[in-house]
Amino acid sequence: MTDQSRLRYDEGCLAAHALNLVGDRWALLVLRELMLADKRFQQIRAGLPGITAAVLTQRLTQLIGAGVVRHDARLGLYGATPSGRGLLPVLQALCRWGALHRGHDPGRFISPTALMISMTAMIDAQAAQGLSLRAGFLIGREGFVQRLTGDGILDVEAQDDPHADFVLEGDGNALARAVYGAQPLSAQGDVTVRGDDALAQRFLDLFRLR
Questions:
Q1: Taking a C-beta distance cutoff of 8 angstroms, is the pair 50, 21 a contact?
Q2: CA 134, 187, 112: angle at the middle one, nearest 5?
Q3: CATH class in words for 4-85
Q4: Class of domain 88-204 (CATH, top level)
């Protein structure tokens, strides 16, 4: 049950109820960083360079109270609960909606997790029909594997040592340029490719900021 002392919206609307739970500033972005893997406090902050330690502590406490984040005090790890992971489609919808509006600056910082989630939202599912592959990513100390099935659906999971048809390595913004930019992969000097270069380019051609 929502803490009545924290209600921002005193309404019976279900959307307002949801925003009472996860609508505070930074809340959805904190949850975003936990969507694919459990993380320690400083790892979460690394993905949210604009947040202060005090605000992050407050948001984690609130999200734990809302039942969307869990905390393993013994290991010092935070993670999304099943209820929290249920908000992945919300984050994906926000990516698609945001891409339709002016003012987005793709040159600004993007965390590894944010890039991975945006790709699941922005893939051209129609163009991806019939293509099955595994794409690996190494971004700093974080690794991921994306699985594209023949129905055009792209899934992603964290994997420290990604095994895939190809692996792309670079920082988050370099890889974002490779995914969403106009230049071919061969011109991306700050991205390393291991594996099938041609398949990697075919995969990246499925993404556009619409």
A1: no
A2: 45
A3: mainly alpha
A4: alpha beta
